[in-house]
Amino acid sequence: MFAMFRAMLAATLVAVFVSAPLAVRAQVEVGRPSALRKLVPAGPLEGSASRQYDELTRQAAASRTLAPDDHPQVRRLRGIAKDIIPFAVRWNPRAGQWRWEVNLIGSKQINAFCMPGGKIVFYSGILDGLKLTDAEVAMVMGHEIAHALREHARERIAKSELTQLGASLLGEMIGGGKYAGAFQIGGDMLSLKFSRDDESEADVVGLELAARAGYDPRAAVTLWQKMAAASRGSPPQWLSTHPSGKNRIQKIERQLPQVLPLYAEARKR
Questions:
Q1: Would you say 85 and 96 are in contact if contact means Cβ atoms under 8 Å apart?
Q2: What is the three-class DSSP state of 100?
Q3: What pLDDT digit, counting tens, does each position of 129-145 carry?
Q4: How far apart are CA 122 and CA 81, in angstroms?
Q5: What is the Cα–Cα distance from 41 to 250, expressed in whole angstroms?
Q6: For the ranges 46-55, 151-160, 163-172, which has the lowest average pLDDT?
Q7: Per-residue DSSP letters for 118-183?
Q8: Whether the Cβ atoms of residue 60 and residue 121 lie closer than 8 Å to each other
Q9: Sign of the alpha-carbon torsion through 55, 61, 64, 67
C-alpha cells in the first residue's frame, strides 16, 4: 500500500509540475513558485483568509484596539502600502484582483502579517517598540506581502495535507485529471509557520518590492539588527514565524547589488 501511495503521489506531482508556469521576470531570482500550491485552490483560501481577517478586525474594534482610519500610523502604513502594491502584480497576476486592506491593532506584540488576498495587519508594538523608520516598515511590509504573492500558505497547507492523503484519493485525482480543490481549506492561517526557504524567498522578493517603491533596501539590515536586539530578552512574536538566523543579514546584503539600482531609479521618479 505504501509503495502504491508513493507511485501515485509521484505521478500527481509530475502532472502538477509540468503545468507550473515560469517565474515572472524580475530583478532578483527566486525560481519557480512551488507547484504544490496548485493542490489548494486560491479562491477559497483567499475567501477563508478574508473571513478570518474580518473576524480579527471586528474583535479589535469591539475591544477598541483597532486604530481608526485617521490615525497617523494608519495613514502612514496605508501610504507605504500604496507605494508597494502596484509592483505586486509582477510576482502574482492575482494580486491585481485582490481587495487589499491595511489595518493597525494596538498591542505590544512585535508582529505584522499579510494574509492571502492582500489582508495586512501591523501591531503597534512593531512600530513603536522597534521605532521603525518608513524604509524599515516597507521592509516588513514587503516581506509579508511577498509571502502572500508567492502563495506560501497554499504550499504549507498542501504539504501538510499530503502527509494525510490516502492512496485512494490520489487515485481519484489522477484518474479524473483534477488537482486543484483536492484539499479542504480550514484552520487558523495566522498559525502557519513558513520554512527557511520560504523566509529567504520572502526576504528577497520583499527587497525588490520595497526598492521599486522607492524605499532604501539597506533598511532591511537595520530592521534585522533591531529585531536581533529585541530578541535578547523575550523573543518577539514575529520571530516565532520569522526565525532570525545568524546569516540572514548576510544573505540580505548579498542581494543589495541587485536591488539598489531599482531604488536609485525609483528615486528619480
A1: no
A2: coil
A3: 999 999 999 999 999 99
A4: 12
A5: 36
A6: 163-172
A7: TEEEEEHHHHHHTT--HHHHHHHHHHHHHHHHTTHHHHHHHHHHHTT--HHHHHHHHHHT--TT-S
A8: no
A9: positive
Per-residue pLDDT averaged across 32-57, rounded?
Answer: 84
Helix (H) or strand (E) holding 220: helix 219-230
Percent of the chain clearing pLDDT 70 (strictly above): 70
Specify the pairing of strand 119-123 against strand 101-105: parallel
Q: Are 104 and 77 in contact (CB under 8 A)?
A: yes
Assess whether pLDDT exceeds 80 at residue 88: yes
Only one residue has cell 505586486, namely 88
The catalytic site residues sit at 144
Stretch among 146-155, 167-176, 191-200, 248-257 having the lowest mean pLDDT: 167-176
Cell of 212: 521599486
